[in-house]
Write a structure and sequence with these properties.
The chain is of the alpha+beta class and 657 residues long. The protein is 56% helix and 6% strand. This is RAP domain-containing protein.
């Protein structure tokens, strides 16, 4: 391990003068890459992959606009273990634990560089950790916020030249961590510094001197520089696969998952290795910390490992224990993964309820939105979560994006639940719509307003804008067509205004945007009837009515809704044949509501089925609901027929055939 000394060295003043002179001659900012690749020719480095050229051009130039010019830096003094003097005393002078602690709490690169310059002697790993911390603070979305704060600092230049000139004497951990930091800082990948570090890494890989963690860190750096086609990556993965998976630590397992997620696992590559890792990780789940749990789940989603359900279930169970320890980012990854794999767990939901109840007001907007999206997709109606989110929305909504606002409100309509503070919630929503209406994407806005009508909250003040030709044009795709589901939402919004808002006098939806049926394949405003439950009800109805001719199935009404079963009665209350269209005095719509028409954890009818039954009643139908939880409890044919008679004809004498 190399020991770096920046301050307190013999002849320090002379050293710094020489270092500055060298940096002046070497660290001049270079020109941006041009389309004729003159910049590429400047370097004596001919083995350039197209990916490398693309990577360099993307981050260092803009036909672009220069975000960060590459710098070559130099100037520092190195002490190694072989130097004269007592190395143990040098170690004693540096409290590495204290240094790392101060590094973690540092909030600016200036603070970090002052910390570096104040240390008598620091190891290469300490210097690398400092550079990594600089990259975390100074980069946003992969771009340096203020490059001059970093690259023009003499301490940064001094540290860099140490890694460049003494690359062969660096510890392996210090080598790969430094390389990772320089990649994140977008240092020129063809500079002498980077070439030497990569070359030294290659030698150590070939000699088998790297453990799995170092191999993975190096692999992620090479993916950033050259992409998945880099030859060195194949060598890295060969060394990884030679090591026994049963002996991997949880940290090593997580790093290999992350490496494969970063690009090496695309197109089914290394699937055999992944399958072995899934089995081994199941045995390690109780050793995983919150960070590893979330990163493994995130990797499973990215790699589309749909066959790894046993591992997902195991990770979900262990997540219950660590729920209160998850950071916002980690919780988002866990919830996204559980949504992707279609898994939910009663104990996980209870733990999530306890967490949200305490943390709703301080959770990040993304985390709150993801919690609501998870509940919505899994049809989990948690009144505890929904009430807490509704309360926090009233006070924190100014911090939310328009998409996050929709993600938090839409689930209330989808799951048909009005929170305890419904009046405050919708007043706040109305205020937001007035002030930020133009900021919403058209589809997002339509989803938001449509969810309101599911809850009998009518956005009358905004309907005129929705039905305007300008807004409808915004809903069109490039070919000029409007998605079928969008047309269904518009039609149901128009039907709601017509039936429930007679005072509305604004523009109406143009006929060309109206549909004749709300039922569509895929995403639909109506749920498909449960086939097994329907067949049982149909058989009992035949026994009750005497013949199949006295009721119709899957009937499309004139009002876009599809009826599971329709029975027609004349003025005296007698049942008419289904084919009879005259003298119909009453129509009975039987809703055969299977389990998918209710929330997964309660008997609360979901929003789209609730509005359907509400509208059918307003349109003159007598609605009879046959819920699965009542029907499934019946035993025997006679009991089922009697149940249907009481439901459909509660005041009539039953005829027996």
């Amino acid at each position: 391990m190399a020991l770096m000394s920046i301050r307190g060295c013999p002849s320090f003043a002379t050293f710094m003068i020489n270092a500055c002179r060298r940096s002046q001659s070497i660290s001049t900012p270079l020109n941006c890459v041009k389309s004729d690749m003159r910049y590429v020719q400047y370097f004596h480095y001919t083995n350039l992959s197209p990916y490398k050229i693309q990577w360099f051009g993307q981050y260092f130039c803009r036909k672009y606009h220069i975000l960060c010019q590459p710098y070559f830096v130099s100037g520092c003094f190195v002490r190694h273990h072989a130097d004269q003097g007592n190395t143990n005393n040098l170690f004693k002078q540096t409290n590495e634990t204290q240094f790392l602690h101060e590094l973690r709490i540092a909030q600016s690169c200036t603070h970090i560089f002052k910390l570096l310059s104040s240390v008598e002697v620091l190891t290469d790993t300490m210097a690398a950790e400092a550079l990594l911390r600089v990259s975390q603070i100074e980069t946003k979305n992969g771009v340096l916020i203020n490059p001059s704060n970093v690259f023009e600092n003499f301490v940064f230049k001094a540290v860099c030249v140490q890694f460049e000139q003494e690359s062969k004497k660096l510890s392996t951990l210090g080598l790969v961590k430094a390389l990772k930091a320089f990649v994140q800082l977008r240092i020129d990948p063809w500079s002498t510094l980077m070439v030497r570090l990569v070359s030294e890494s290659q030698e150590r890989v070939d000699k088998g001197e790297m453990n799995i963690q170092n191999l993975c860190t190096l692999g992620e750096c090479l993916l950033e520089i050259e992409g998945p086609d880099c030859e060195m990556l194949k060598s890295i993965m060969d060394h990884v696969q030679r090591k026994k998976i049963e002996e991997w630590t949880p940290e090593e397992m997580g790093m290999v998952y992350s490496l494969l997620q970063a690009g090496l696992g695309e197109k089914g590559q290394y699937q055999g290795l992944l399958n072995q890792m899934h089995e081994a990780t199941i045995c390690l789940t109780f050793q995983l910390n919150p960070l590893l749990i979330s990163s493994v789940l995130d990797a499973l989603v990215a790699l589309k490992q749909t066959q790894a359900i046993p591992l997902v279930i195991k990770l979900c169970k262990i997540s219950v224990r660590y729920m209160h320890l998850f950071s916002n980012e980690e919780l988002v990854k866990v919830l996204v993964a559980l949504t992707y794999f279609g898994h939910s767990d009663k104990y996980f939901t209870e733990a999530l309820e306890r967490y949200v109840l305490k943390m709703a007001f301080v959770m990040s907007p993304e985390a709150v939105s993801t919690v609501m999206s998870y509940c919505s997709r899994r049809l989990i109606l948690s009144k505890t979560i929904f009430d807490a989110v509704a309360e926090s929305f009233v006070y924190n909504s100014e911090n939310f994006t328009t998409l996050q606002i929709a993600q938090q409100i839409v689930p209330f309509g989808k799951l048909n639940y009005l929170p305890l503070n419904a009046s405050s919630l919708f007043r706040r929503l109305e205020t937001i719509l007035y002030s930020r209406f133009s900021q919403f994407q058209p589809r997002t806005l339509l989803n938001l307003l449509h969810s309101c009508i599911l809850l009998e909250k009518f956005p009358v003040n905004f309907v005129a804008k929705i039905f305007s030709p300008y807004f409808l044009q915004q809903l069109q795709d490039p070919s000029g067509n409007v998605d079928r589901f969008v047309l269904c939402q518009l039609t149901q919004l128009f039907l709601t205004v017509s039936l429930e808002c007679p005072f509305y006098e604004g523009p109406k939806l143009l006929p060309k945007y109206r549909v004749k049926s709300f039922f569509t394949s895929g995403q639909s405003l109506e749920s498909v009837v449960d086939a097994q439950l329907y067949n049982r009800v149909k058989s009992a109805l035949i026994d009750l009515l005497g013949a199949r001719m006295y009721f119709a199935s899957r009937v499309l009404s004139p009002y876009c809704y599809t009826l599971d079963v329709e029975i027609k009665l004349d003025e005296e209350g007698f049942v008419l044949p289904a084919s009879h269209h005259e003298e119909v005095h009453k129509r009975i719509a039987i809703c055969i509501d299977g389990q998918k028409r209710f929330c997964s954890n309660s008997h609360n009818l979901i929003g789209k089925e609730s509005i359907k039954q509400r509208h059918l009643r307003l349109l003159g139908y007598e609605v009879v609901q046959i819920p699965f939880y009542e029907f499934d409890s019946l035993k025997g044919k006679e009991e089922i027929v009697e149940y249907l008679h009481q439901k459909i004809f509660p005041y009539s004498y039953r005829l027996k055939w």
